[in-house]
Amino acid sequence: MTDTMKRCSICQAEFDGASRPSVYAEAGEWLAGEVWHDAGELCPQCLENRAMLAMMYLHEHNT
User: Fold this and answer.
1) DSSP assignment of the chain, as one string?
2) How many domains are contained in the chain?
3) Which domain holds residue 14?
4) What is the pLDDT of residue 60?
5) What would the pLDDT profile of 1-21 be if each residue is shown by its tens digit?
6) Which pTM value belongs to this model?
């Protein structure tokens, strides 16, 4: 694992912490920091999944 490689706390996959995130991953990063307080610990795929699920089910954070 290089300096920028991290391990996701949800799926345990290795990911590059310096990679450019998608729009969904950016939304997931916001949720990680503001709602679940696990920012920097999730891979882009888990961030994207979290953001999509939050858009569907967490209406209190979609306003």
Assistant:
1) --TTEEE-TTT--EEETTSPP-HHHHHHHHHIIIII--TTSS-HHHHHHHHHHHHHH-GGG--
2) 1
3) 5-61
4) 80
5) 567 899 999 999 999 988 888
6) 0.86
